[in-house]
Write the structure tokens for this entry.
Amino acid sequence: MIFKPYYYFETGCAAYLFGCGSLGKCAVVDAHEEDVGAYMTFASSKGMRITHVIDTHVHADHRSGGLALSKQAGAAYCLHESADVALAFEPLRDGQEVELGNTRLKVLHTPGHTPESISLVVTDLRRGADPWFVLTGDTLFVGAVGRPDLPGRARENAGELYDSIHMKLLTLPDDIEVYPGHFAGSACGAGMSGKPSSTVAFEKRWNPLLSKSRAEFVDALCDVPPKPAAMEQILDINRGRQVRVP
């Protein structure tokens, strides 16, 4: 498997390009608008074609490059089937498997940060049948979790986030690597580590929010940082409800 993370240290964001070098198929997850050309160049340098462009959710803190990249690459632009957007996209369902040659993605619907949030469990069949890592989007971070207040209904969303983490992500094998959509510097959660990756076992042991009861977890998530600047405008752009301007 070829795996390349893209880290945006000024905003604490991450994007990922990965796939099967042998059969030349790859995906980009949580693409940023300013790096569309960079994703295309890297994939081409490795003899890969971008076949899927996936946003783990509708982003509120930065302009997504997902739709633009999908058009340039001739790839499917994918969101969870519940995404409330005015854009054409390929719907993903909970439990669905996406084939990228010898690389496989399993979709987990993990609502809480937003209703349409997903995580992606990735397996490299050349390495073995067991999953290797999970891209957790804004659901689970290193040392923290996603904020539940951006769509409104913060307490209800916090309960869904607790269930998504405990019933889906923490039931994965302990040795699975965790690659989230953000690290320290992002406004999409509080208390994030500057380390951009982890494992399920490490988060079980050291993430302070994961040892709380459901009620304690919900109460703790009421204390969140200010919403990102221009959040509503960014959301409207990423939902296709406002024209993009340079």
The two ends are 35 Å apart (CA to CA). The first helix runs from residue 36 to 45. The first strand starts at residue 2 and ends at 8. The mean pLDDT is 92.
